């Protein structure tokens, strides 16, 4: 069975040191803000369906010329939107009634 571990460190871009530490602890991906938002929504009594996507690769080397940047995240998001063919937007709240 494949088991993935997602670490929530946001909403912000993670530093190289954070990426290395989370990787050493067994993390497979870093989430920007899904977990804190779900915690608040559940506290308010809302049912939640979270959909997350990985949009950029972590920079793990201090000598790398690559940097985490918002343009890369938006490009990854746009690619997924085009593939899904759905009108998703990062600032849109999508309410889907879930069965009780």
From TrEMBL:
Q: What is its EC number?
A: 2.4.2.1
Q: State the family it belongs to.
A: Belongs to the PNP/MTAP phosphorylase family.
User: What's the protein name?
Assistant: purine-nucleoside phosphorylase
Which reaction is catalysed here? 2'-deoxyinosine + phosphate = 2-deoxy-alpha-D-ribose 1-phosphate + hypoxanthine; guanosine + phosphate = alpha-D-ribose 1-phosphate + guanine; inosine + phosphate = alpha-D-ribose 1-phosphate + hypoxanthine; 2'-deoxyguanosine + phosphate = 2-deoxy-alpha-D-ribose 1-phosphate + guanine
Q: In which pathway does it act?
A: Purine metabolism; purine nucleoside salvage
Which keywords does this chain's UniProt record carry?
A: Glycosyltransferase, Transferase
Share an example GO biological-process annotation for this protein: nucleoside metabolic process
PANTHER family documented for this protein: METHYLTHIOADENOSINE/PURINE NUCLEOSIDE PHOSPHORYLASE, PURINE NUCLEOSIDE PHOSPHORYLASE
**According to the lineage, what is the superkingdom?**
Eukaryota
List the Gene Ontology MF annotations in alphabetical order.
Answer: purine-nucleoside phosphorylase activity
Q: Does the keyword DNA-binding apply?
A: no
Gene it is expressed from: PNP
Q: Where is the Nucleoside phosphorylase domain?
A: 6-73
Q: Name one GO cellular component term.
A: cytoplasm
Broadest EC class assigned to this enzyme: transferase
């Amino acid at each position: 069975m494949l088991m993935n571990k997602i670490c929530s460190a946001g909403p912000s871009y993670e530093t190289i040191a954070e990426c290395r530490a989370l990787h050493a602890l067994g993390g497979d991906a870093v989430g920007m803000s899904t977990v804190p938002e779900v915690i608040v929504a559940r506290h308010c009594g809302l049912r939640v369906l979270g959909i997350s996507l990985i949009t950029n690769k972590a920079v793990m080397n201090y000598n790398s010329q690559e940097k985490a940047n918002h343009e890369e995240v938006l490009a990854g998001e746009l690619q997924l939107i085009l593939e899904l063919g759905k009108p998703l937007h990062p600032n849109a709240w999508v309410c889907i009634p879930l069965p009780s």
